[in-house]
């Protein structure tokens, strides 16, 4: 018994729980060898505070008991309740003996049992989630990297001396096989840098989870006839085994048995099998036990699956619980869709009562949260409800899009129709009632729906009690947008009707009685006035005003705190609900003044609903209290620096605070973001999503992408001008230095001449030369110039050019999205793929087919999009780019972004909701001809009419749902982060607990969980726990792959972090494998061409590893590829090229291959002189190095001449000398590879001098021999 199991008083806190299993369970011995007996009991350890339900949860995932879905636990003679606490059951005892009791089934239990069995038998692969009905997901590819185990011990032996450690600091302890694998991997990287393919990067992996049965579904003979119901029959099932047999099964109250039914005849009585008698007809309590008796392959496949996943990280195959898997932009065309009747049968057998998500959501918020466990239980339920609401709402919205639901007002126009299904209210997002008429109409309504959802997400993190809000989900599909919300209780209910007769016509009419549930606070649409309610306003001031920094104000004589466009309604459940919360954030008044108010309609921004983001308001508020020197808590409680949400929204209302926040965005935040990129404080973006995430973190709206590009371009232009000025200054300095050198040499020559005259005088007079005349001539310090060490002037292209590139792609893709939305919302859904293929062909496929046509079928060419031409489409894209992002696209943008088209194609797919078929696309005829040549002669090659076809396109919904992050987890994380400096162990414990809680609430497959694991990897690395850091980094990569996509910026960012950690762990092969994945992914979009630094950074790291394993020739190969990239991006005159050439020469010198060393070093002198100046330390060293190598080469030539002379006189001795010389010339000296220039010069000069001495010695010896 460990000390951890005891309380301070010595009392044991954990219990040993032994559970006796029912007899005859095949699953209890299925994985055992035949000679071993099946398990009769299982043992676990639980805390005394655990509940009986906790034991049942563990049994549900334990191999021997997981098929037992309908059981009770028995203690003595007493059946235990789920909620009972173990400590209360056993008292002070240390051991708890329980027995499993099999319960009789009901129909609901049978259905639950069948669904559970299907999950364990692989009928639901790991790529399935709540939205898989509408979009495909793919498996994780992280396992295919083939990374070795994490290195746990990196310390050197204690008996190693310090000198030994220093001398071997660059040599890594790597096995020969790992060295070989590393070299092979690096060569694959180098050969594939320019040949990466998006089809290969996005090629799907086969599913990990596969079925162990051919089929398992409900039989066609359901429902059970009345005569058999009285016999205990509940359901009839049909199963197909891997052996090809089909069985009809009866599910009864006592279990399952195979009956005599066939596909053509019904006979549900037990079937006896030959040579088995009545035993074969007995019911089995689990369906698994029944099927295992009839299918030998079932158990073997189950065991094989267990072995397969045993070596995998569970993240690779677990299914999301409260989150959704990523829906990639490119999917396989050969997706297997096997028949499964049960998929459609489940809806008809649902035993769930009609759900009311609002009642569930609000009831959970009412639960007491006075303990940590209670808060966690509440958060878990809230996350579950929000996720399930999103799934149901999305399915309902898709049914509306496909026309399967009948509207509540079917006679209304399409945009005005509303729907109610499963207590969820659906409406199309449009300006139906004219509320946004003065702000841009439909465009403003769309923006407001996004802003409203953003506020709801913030409220999920606040945890309000008095103020309630509604669950919301936005679903966009084929250019149409639906808002799904839970209605306010009682708002849609009728209070009855009143019959009356029209006095004029005499017609009998029916009128709905007025609903008592109406607006009590805010904007009342029926009266078109703003009304106030003290109880409502007090609750808002208590729970919302401080959070959003809102100022109380008056509208129409009514005092309110929220925006006048918001509404407060007292529901039938007597809870206070707030709706229409979009305008809770302030208006971006500067943007409105510049781009909407008093602007020509043709150049006007599409709407006036241009609000600032809440992140910006919070950043401004934080810096405001810091600037004023106020205490955070005091300023928060006093609601300092609050603003009026109706400022500039309602005529006559203004607020200087709103102006100040808008100025803060324009004058501080936007320039600060560009400065962060320019200085390398922020990673160069991989794609537009990466840029947008950084903008949102800083509180910047996407409409500022154009401004961001202009600021980045200005920053780049300023740096180029300063660079040119710097080069001019260097050139002038070089001229001045040359003049100084000339004067200096003349002065030295004069001093030497004068001294020599004095020496000659003494010699002529026969006197001894004074000692001071034989010493080195020394000039005054003030006349000498020491080499400078000024930092070189660097243009930050590697940060700013990727920013400009990614931002322009984001602007173009979003502009095309709006064009697609415009043309798709008024055409049949079946024609939208044809629209997308046509637009793609006009933009990207013109090099293959110069005049593509729309695939609309016969007689369907009357739609507006069919008249699009390439010129009109490009003009529309440029127009949208200016209107929505205030950015004028460069004249060559179409050529620039179609040269490597997939980056833009990918972005358009994600913007609109498209999944393309993973296949080869031909953008010109040359690509087609290459494909024909590669095609096997036996197979028929079908030449496509255009680059894209409607068959290549699948439209998927874009779902924006409410998000729920654990407040408890956030609090623990904040505590851990605050104490990491003072109490490391406690801090790490708190941080780990935070992540564990987040996993429990949001599920492991959550973006927020991945973010925390990525942060933990950094934290653990900073405190010296490298193996743990690597583990967290790998986990983050796997989660990101499944929830963000294998080519997402999140995955690339986390892979880069993992590569650095693997490098720190001295795991050379793992580092190379990770970099191989990174490079293949980014090069499929040709990011090197836009100066993205990730590939250059990877090659630099690989070169250092090559030197670390004493493979200088591989390091040289890497550097040569690096040099080629630098020349393609900049030129052979760039400083970066000089650095690389210097490193190559360094390595050659360390290998004693001096001609090659001189070849690469010779160019560095001019580069360093031009870029840094003649008197810069590197220029001086390069000059000395060139001279040293030249002198050494001359010495070698002299040696060779002497050796040739000696060969003539002594042929035998000459051969030996040539052999020795050859061994010296070609022998590598890796210890010198990383030495400084001074050390190499010393080596070169020392080698030269030593060679000279040896030559003289040998010459003298030869002379003696001749004598």
How would you describe this structure to a colleague?
- This protein is 49% helix and 10% strand.
- The radius of gyration is 38 Å and the shape is globular.
- It is of the alpha+beta class.
- It has 40 helices and 26 strands.
- A hairpin with a 2-residue loop joins strand 8 and strand 9.
- Helix 20 (705-764) packs antiparallel against helix 22 (797-824), helix 20 (705-764) crosses helix 37 (1154-1172) and helix 33 (1068-1083) runs antiparallel to helix 34 (1094-1108).
Task: Specify the helix fraction band.
Answer: 40-55%
Question: What is the global morphology?
Answer: globular
End-to-end C-alpha gap: 92 Å
Low-confidence region ranges:
1-11, 30-35, 156-169, 1214-1267
Largest sheet: 5 strands, mixed
Class by SSE composition? alpha+beta
Tally the helices.
Answer: 40
DSSP strand count: 26
- Into which percentage range does the β-strand content fall? 5-15%
How would you write the strand order of the largest sheet?
Answer: 2-1-5-3-4
Would you tell me the overall average pLDDT? 87
What Rg, in angstroms, do the CA atoms define? 38 Å
């Amino acid at each position: 018994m460990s000390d951890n199991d005891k309380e301070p008083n010595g009392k044991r806190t954990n219990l040993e729980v032994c559970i006796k299993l029912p007899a005859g369970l095949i699953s209890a011995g299925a994985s055992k060898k035949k000679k071993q007996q099946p398990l009769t009991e299982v043992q676990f350890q639980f805390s005394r505070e655990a509940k009986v339900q906790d034991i049942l949860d563990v049994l549900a995932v334990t191999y021997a008991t997981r098929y037992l879905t309908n059981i009770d636990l028995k203690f003595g003679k007493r059946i235990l309740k789920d909620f009972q606490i173990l400590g209360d059951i056993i008292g002070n005892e240390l051991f708890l003996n329980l027995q499993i009791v099999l319960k009789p089934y009901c129909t609901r239990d049978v259905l639950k049992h069948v669904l559970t069995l299907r999950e364990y038998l692989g009928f639901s692969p790991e790529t399935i989630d709540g939205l898989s009905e509408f979009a495909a997901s793919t498996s994780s590819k992280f396992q295919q990297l083939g990374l070795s185990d994490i290195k746990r011990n990196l310390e050197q032996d204690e008996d190693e001396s310090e000198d030994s450690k220093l001398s071997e600091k660059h040599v890594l302890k790597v096995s020969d096989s790992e060295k070989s694998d590393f070299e092979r991997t690096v060569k694959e990287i180098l050969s594939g840098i320019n040949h990466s393919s998006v089809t290969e990067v996005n090629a799907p992996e086969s599913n990990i989870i596969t079925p162990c049965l051919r089929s398992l579904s409900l039989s066609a003979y359901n429902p059970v006839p009345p005569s058999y119901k009285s016999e205990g029959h509940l359901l009839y099932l049909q199963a197909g085994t891997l052996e090809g047999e089909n069985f009809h099964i009866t599910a009864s109250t006592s279990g399952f048995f195979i009956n005599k039914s066939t596909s053509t005849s019904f006979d549900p009585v037990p079937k006896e099998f030959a040579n088995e008698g009545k035993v074969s007809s007995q019911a089995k309590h689990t369906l698994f036990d029944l099927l295992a008796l009839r299918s030998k392959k079932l158990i073997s496949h189950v065991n094989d699956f267990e072995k397969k996943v045993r070596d995998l990280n569970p993240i690779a195959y677990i299914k999301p619980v409260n989150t959704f898997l990523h829906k990639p932009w490119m999917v396989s065309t050969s997706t297997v869709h096997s028949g499964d009747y049960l998929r459609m049968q489940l809806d008809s057998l649902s035993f769930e009562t009609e759900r009311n998500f609002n009642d569930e959501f609000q009831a959970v918020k009412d639960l007491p949260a006075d303990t940590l466990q209670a808060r966690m239980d509440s958060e878990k339920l809230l996350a579950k409800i929000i996720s399930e609401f999103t799934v149901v709402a999305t399915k309902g919205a898709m049914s509306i899009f496909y026309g399967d639901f009948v509207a509540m007002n079917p006679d209304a126009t399409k945009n005005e129709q509303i729907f109610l299904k499963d207590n969820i209210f659906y409406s199309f997002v449009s300006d139906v009632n004219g509320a946004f008429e003065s702000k841009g109409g439909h465009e403003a309504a769309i923006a407001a729906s996004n802003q409203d959802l953003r506020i709801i997400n913030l409220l999920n993190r606040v945890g309000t009690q008095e103020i309630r809000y509604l669950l919301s989900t936005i679903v966009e599909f084929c250019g149409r947008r639906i808002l799904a919300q839970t209605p306010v209780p009682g708002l849609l209910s009728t209070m009855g009707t009143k019959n009356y007769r029209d006095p004029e016509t005499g017609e009998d009419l029916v009128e709905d009685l007025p609903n008592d549930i109406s607006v009590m606070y805010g904007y009342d649409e029926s009266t078109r006035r703003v009304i106030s309610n003290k109880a409502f306003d007090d609750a808002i001031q208590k729970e919302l005003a401080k959070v959003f920094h809102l100022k109380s104000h008056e509208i129409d004589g009514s005092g309110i705190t929220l925006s006048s466009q918001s509404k407060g309604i007292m529901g039938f459940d007597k809870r206070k609900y707030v709706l229409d919360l979009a305008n809770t954030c302030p208006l971006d008044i500067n943007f409105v003044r510049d781009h909407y108010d008093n602007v020509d309609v043709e150049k006007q921004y599409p709407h006036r609903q241009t609000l600032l983001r809440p992140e910006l308001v919070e950043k401004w508020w934080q810096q405001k209290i810091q600037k004023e020197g106020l205490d955070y808590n005091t300023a928060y409680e006093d609601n300092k620096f609050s603003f009026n949400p109706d400022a500039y929204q309602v005529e006559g209302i203004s607020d200087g605070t709103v102006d100040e926040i808008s100025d803060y965005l324009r004058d501080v935040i936007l320039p600060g973001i560009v400065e962060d990129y320019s200085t390398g404080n922020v990673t160069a973006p991989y794609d537009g999503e990466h840029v947008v995430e950084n903008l949102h973190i800083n509180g910047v709206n996407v409409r500022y992408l154009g401004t961001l590009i202009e600021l980045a371009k200005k920053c780049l232009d300023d740096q180029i001008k300063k660079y040119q000025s710097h080069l001019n200054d260097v050139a002038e300095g070089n001229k001045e230095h040359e003049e100084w050198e000339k004067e200096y040499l003349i002065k030295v020559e004069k001093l030497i001449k004068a001294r020599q005259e004095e020496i000659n005088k003494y010699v002529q007079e026969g006197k001894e030369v004074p000692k001071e005349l034989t010493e080195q001539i020394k000039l005054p310090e003030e006349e000498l110039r020491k080499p400078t060490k000024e930092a070189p002037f660097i243009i930050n292209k590697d940060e700013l050019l990727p920013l400009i590139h990614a931002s322009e792609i984001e602007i173009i893709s979003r502009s095309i999205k709006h064009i697609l939305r415009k043309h798709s919302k008024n055409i049949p859904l079946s024609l939208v793929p044809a629209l997308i293929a046509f637009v793609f062909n006009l933009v990207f496929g013109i090099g293959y087919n110069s005049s593509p046509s729309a695939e609309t079928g016969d007689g369907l060419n009357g739609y507006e999009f069919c008249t699009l031409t390439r010129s009109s489409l490009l003009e529309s894209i440029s127009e949208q780019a200016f209107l929505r992002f205030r950015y004028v696209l460069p004249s060559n943008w179409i050529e620039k972004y179609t040269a490597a088209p997939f980056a833009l194609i990918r972005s358009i797919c994600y913007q609109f909701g498209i999944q393309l078929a993973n296949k080869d696309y031909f953008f010109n005829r040359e690509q087609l001809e290459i494909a024909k040549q590669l095609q096997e002669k036996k197979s028929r090659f079908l030449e496509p009419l255009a680059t894209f076809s409607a068959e290549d396109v699948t439209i998927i919904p874009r779902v924006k749902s409410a998000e729920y992050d654990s407040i408890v987890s956030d609090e623990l994380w904040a505590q851990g982060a605050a104490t990491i400096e003072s109490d490391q162990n406690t801090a790490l414990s708190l941080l780990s607990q935070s992540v564990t809680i987040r996993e429990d609430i949001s599920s492991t497959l959550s973006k927020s969980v991945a973010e925390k694991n990525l942060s933990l990897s950094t934290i653990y690395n900073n405190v010296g726990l490298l193996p743990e850091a690597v583990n967290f980094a790998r986990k983050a990569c796997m989660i990101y792959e499944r929830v963000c996509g294998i080519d997402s910026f999140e995955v690339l960012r986390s892979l880069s972090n993992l590569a650095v950690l693997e490098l720190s762990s001295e795991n050379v092969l793992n580092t190379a494998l990770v970099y191989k994945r990174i490079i293949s992914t980014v090069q499929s979009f040709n990011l090197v061409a836009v100066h993205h630094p990730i590939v250059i950074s990877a090659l630099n790291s690989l070169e250092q590893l090559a030197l670390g394993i004493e493979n200088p020739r591989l390091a040289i190969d890497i550097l040569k590829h690096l040099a080629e990239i630098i020349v393609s991006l900049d030129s052979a005159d760039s400083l970066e090229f000089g650095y690389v050439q210097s490193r190559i020469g360094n390595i050659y010198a360390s290998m004693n291959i001096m001609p090659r060393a001189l070849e690469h070093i010779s160019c560095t002198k001019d580069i360093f002189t031009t870029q840094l100046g003649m008197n810069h330390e590197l220029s001086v060293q390069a000059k000395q190095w060139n001279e040293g190598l030249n002198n050494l080469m001359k010495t070698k030539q002299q040696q060779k001449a002497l050796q040739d002379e000696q060969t003539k006189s002594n042929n035998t001795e000459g051969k030996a000398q040539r052999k020795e010389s050859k061994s010296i010339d070609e022998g590598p000296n890796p210890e010198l590879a990383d030495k400084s220039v001074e050390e190499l010069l010393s080596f070169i000069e020392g080698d030269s001098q030593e060679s000279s001495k040896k030559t003289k010695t040998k010459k003298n010896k030869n002379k003696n021999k001749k004598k």
